[in-house]
């Protein structure tokens, strides 16, 4: 980081901090186009997103070169637009991933970058800015900054109200954040109302049993859990588990099919691929492990539902190549299936999964062979 020398700044130009927009006193020594009010905000931005986009910002924040023809100028503008759109998505996904990992403070600078680039590309009143406002809302809720969350949310609501065309996806995200806000404030009836709307719009956009709708069911279940309505909460957690189990099991079956028929090139092509981006993987881990923790600490009964959660978590970690965790969850599920009556078919499926995990991890291969031979 370098200090800014006031005499070197062009007259009339005001440099602002990337994080808080206060007057800047320092700049990034690497890109020299990003400014900060002090060391704390520079470190926060670097940890969140700046390390990933430092050099990408240089062509966006420097004067465009002189072009000899209109065709060259048009090409230059198109390149600039594509770079900004790339950064919009990159910053958005990084911020999302932090949120699902519970790193709310780290999420904020990345979300701010996404918001500013969206405003530059689409305009302050475009619905394209809404997802970034909602990321900032969720991060603020996670940090306990309810007033700040309400400000970001009101900005998002205002843009949606003024828009004549707004997708079910945007409405779903808006209601989801309203549900989160009311949950944080303890207004559970209001939270349920908004999360019911979230489920409706997500179902219209993706379908009722899509993994992208599962987050809405999960958050609704959390509200019922807060209200100590465990039966309703558990039924919703079960639905979420079923959605993820169906999705992941299809991928696992494709792999097993490829092993049995090695000439099937198409099946091998998708080997060890979740089909998810990093934020979706982080969301899946958060959802499944939260449900598992709730069942283990609140629901005393060890049932086939618990087995399915463990198996689903095992499949997810296997496809993400987190093999030690995959083996841990699969083994727990297998041992539990041996304790319950009439679970021979499930036990066989879990033995198959353990063998599949072991095939990628020699450390667990011996254990997998032992269970296949002795049970």
Could you give the count of β-strands?
3
**Which outline best applies?**
globular
Structural class: mainly alpha
H/E order of the elements?
A: EEEHHHHHHHHHHHHHHH
Question: Unreliable stretches, pLDDT < 50, 5 or more residues?
Answer: none
Count up the helices.
Answer: 15
How much of the residues is beta strand, in percent?
under 5%
Q: Helix content range of the residues, please?
A: over 70%
Sum up the structure in keywords:
375 residues; mainly alpha; three-stranded antiparallel beta sheet; 15 helices
Describe this structure in words.
Helix content is 71%, strand content 2%. The chain has 15 helices and 3 strands. It has helices at 39-53, 70-100, 104-122, 130-142, 146-162, 168-185, 188-206, 211-226, 230-260, 265-269, 278-297, 304-319, 323-339, 344-360, 362-374; strands spanning 2-3, 26-27, 35-36. Strand 2 (26-27) and strand 3 form a beta hairpin. Helix 1 (39-53) crosses helix 3 and helix 9 (230-260) crosses helix 12. It is globular.
Strands, helices and their partners?
Layout: E1 2-3, E2 26-27, E3 35-36, H1 39-53, H2 70-100, H3 104-122, H4 130-142, H5 146-162, H6 168-185, H7 188-206, H8 211-226, H9 230-260, H10 265-269, H11 278-297, H12 304-319, H13 323-339, H14 344-360, H15 362-374
Antiparallel strand pairs: 1-2, 2-3
Helix pairs in contact: 1-3, 2-3, 2-4, 2-11, 3-4, 4-5, 4-6, 5-6, 6-7, 6-8, 7-8, 8-9, 9-11, 9-12, 11-12, 12-13, 13-14, 14-15
